[in-house]
Amino acid sequence: MPRYKIKIEYDGTPYYGWQRQDNFPSVQQSIEEAMQKFAQHEVTVFAAGRTDTGVHALGQVIHVDLERDWKPEKVQEATNGLLKLAGHPVSAIDVTKVDSEFDARFSAVQRYYRYRIINRIAPLTVDLKRAWWIRFPLDVDAMNDAAQELVGHHDFTTFRSTDCQAKSPMRTVDVLRVSRVDEAEIEIIAEARSFLHNQIRSFAGSLKLVGDGKWTRQDLVAARDSLDRKRCGPVAPACGLYLTRVDYPV
Q1: Which ranges constitute the DSSP H helices of the chain?
Q2: Out of 11, 52, 127, 225, which one is annotated catalytic?
Q3: pTM listed for this prediction
Q4: pLDDT tens-digit map of 117-159
Q5: Considering the domain boundaries, does residue 171 fall inside one?
Q6: Residue 187 in domain
Q7: Do 93 and 126 share a domain, yes or no?
Q8: Taking residues 39-46, what's their average pLDDT?
Q9: Are residues 115 and 221 in the same domain?
């Protein structure tokens, strides 16, 4: 069966996350149902990352096996047409045929996320449900300085969900950078081979405490080293998180 690698973007607002569920809409379900209509057989798609409820993607990657040897452009055209017809804010932005050994999840060597904060007095309109609104000023330099304590190889028990199914809390964070995009917007960039469940949103919520002066850099270190989920700051809202890119071996 031919295997296809598909780069996907989506607005996660109307979905209960990536993974198919019995009673709630998911991104996976929307794509599978669209592809089944033109492929005329049962389809299962596999993703590089299972994003949570309300999380968005600009560069999610999936793979799928189809019984017929379709041209990639036909797979893209048919999938997007059926998704649009069904009213789903999901789009296939690139489709390529790949070797059967390719796996969207297990072949990935690096994942990239962006967390958006709009830091202004005025409530959100255009960016509503697409960023975390914080009305009081944040010290971005202090946030970025503290964030470097989370870079490297650590036990991230403090910063992972109690529902996380990963076998180990050990992860290596290659990049964690906090900076201002413009007068109002702050972004947190995170890069690693893999992340734990809720790890980036836990980072964002804890760094916000540093930004508003409630925590120091050493408070963040103490929370990290406690290996105690209760010592984590508030988990940041899902609406600000974007999966932006996934890298694979050349």
Answers
A1: 27-39, 72-85, 140-147, 199-211, 217-226
A2: 52
A3: 0.95
A4: 999 999 999 999 999 999 999 999 999 999 999 999 999 999 9
A5: yes
A6: yes
A7: no
A8: 96
A9: yes
List all residues 6 or more positions away from 110 whose beta carbon is below 8 Å from its beta carbon. Answer: 174, 191, 192, 193, 246, 247
Q: 137 lies in a domain?
A: yes
Q: Which residue has the tokens 């990239």?
A: 112
- Residue 101 DSSP SS3: coil
248 touches 107 (CB < 8 A)? yes
* Closest to 69 (Cα-Cα) out of 1, 142, 154: 1
State the total domains in the chain.
2
Is the CB of residue 106 less than 8 Å from the CB of residue 172?
no
Query: What is the rounded (10 degree) CA torsion for 201, 245, 79, 42?
Result: -70
Which residues span the domain enclosing 53? Answer: 3-98
Question: Is 52 a catalytic site residue?
Answer: yes
For helices 199-211 and 140-147, the axis angle rounded to 10 degrees is: 130
Question: Strands 56-65 and 241-247: what pairing?
Answer: parallel
DSSP 18: S
Task: Say what the pLDDT of residue 22 is.
Answer: 87
